[in-house]
């Protein structure tokens, strides 16, 4: 398929964040053609992740505006820049906020997904190639976000941040695998690795935590204990295989003690998906001595410090952390899409809302109210 727009500037609609915390405005933007090792994508579906909201609110970091947010999405390659050999126009893809150059020590290591060249950088608003933005309005640059900027009908992405997937996979469903769901799922399957019949505690029952629970269910865990300060989340969590619930507010002792008592010495694995430092400490201390493994996924506040008695470590409890569930985006995401295609992994239950692109601000309202899990934004009518 040869695109008629290749090599030309494309004018299209994008949701521009002009100022921190102010509703996005749908504007006509110009999207420059992809340069070397870049591809231009037509985004068909995108969904909102907490990280978009966090940086839109400009909490705790230097604000970079105007900016086009968005990093969970599915689309089709429109054109490719020089040197791109493994993608062609028409390919179905998921853009990802963290990349895989396939050449650095991390990409070559089986253990890491922390690519030296393309790992997440939330401060950079320009492309690596020339330090410039591919988006503009009347010649003025509009900045990128985490190399993806999917709240636009077209976007330019580094080829290392694009996973080519099965073209028959429905993009309105698998787009959620671009970030949150893969993050939670991989944290359990790739890092915590619970054994069949084991116990797993999940801290935080939002989309990421429920995806971590889904991973525990797939791994055959027999007890999946959901921990959340909001008891309203418990009913929904049952659909994700959570078997027991603990609200720390219901007890007058630390939740790790509650969990240790419930499990006769501690859970086999725990996955922390809240970003609260107290939850992180509890998630570590609640695992069984001798073999327990705790995995941190949530993003902490800038000044947080993890405090625990070293005896916990001497007693053979392991603390680990991961981002994007240790998945290498280009090498591993296609097989996560296949898990969905084979009906091993259900994505529909994560999708609680859908809005047309013109109503993208509603997706932000749902997220801010803590309503639902994922809101799909349909880019074309
Ligand atoms: C997060 C992962 C940890 C750093 C900030 C971004 N991922 C995407 O939402
Ligand atoms: Zn995200």
Automatic annotation (TrEMBL):
<dbReference type="InterPro" id="IPR011032">
    <property type="entry name" value="GroES-like_sf"/>
</dbReference>
<keyword id="KW-0862">Zinc</keyword>
<dbReference type="GO" id="GO:0004022">
    <property type="term" value="F:alcohol dehydrogenase (NAD+) activity"/>
</dbReference>
<dbReference type="GO" id="GO:0051903">
    <property type="term" value="F:S-(hydroxymethyl)glutathione dehydrogenase [NAD(P)+] activity"/>
</dbReference>
<feature type="domain" description="Alcohol dehydrogenase-like N-terminal">
    <location>
        <begin position="36"/>
        <end position="165"/>
    </location>
</feature>
<dbReference type="Pfam" id="PF08240">
    <property type="entry name" value="ADH_N"/>
</dbReference>
<keyword id="KW-0560">Oxidoreductase</keyword>
<dbReference type="GO" id="GO:0008270">
    <property type="term" value="F:zinc ion binding"/>
</dbReference>
<dbReference type="InterPro" id="IPR013154">
    <property type="entry name" value="ADH-like_N"/>
</dbReference>
<dbReference type="GO" id="GO:0005829">
    <property type="term" value="C:cytosol"/>
</dbReference>
<keyword id="KW-0479">Metal-binding</keyword>
<dbReference type="Pfam" id="PF00107">
    <property type="entry name" value="ADH_zinc_N"/>
</dbReference>
<dbReference type="GO" id="GO:0046294">
    <property type="term" value="P:formaldehyde catabolic process"/>
</dbReference>
<keyword id="KW-0963">Cytoplasm</keyword>
<dbReference type="InterPro" id="IPR002328">
    <property type="entry name" value="ADH_Zn_CS"/>
</dbReference>
<keyword id="KW-0520">NAD</keyword>
<protein>
    <recommendedName>
        <fullName>Alcohol dehydrogenase 1</fullName>
        <ecNumber>1.1.1.1</ecNumber>
    </recommendedName>
</protein>
<dbReference type="InterPro" id="IPR013149">
    <property type="entry name" value="ADH-like_C"/>
</dbReference>
<comment type="subunit">
    <text>Homodimer.</text>
</comment>
<feature type="domain" description="Alcohol dehydrogenase-like C-terminal">
    <location>
        <begin position="207"/>
        <end position="339"/>
    </location>
</feature>
<comment type="similarity">
    <text>Belongs to the zinc-containing alcohol dehydrogenase family.</text>
</comment>
<dbReference type="InterPro" id="IPR036291">
    <property type="entry name" value="NAD(P)-bd_dom_sf"/>
</dbReference>
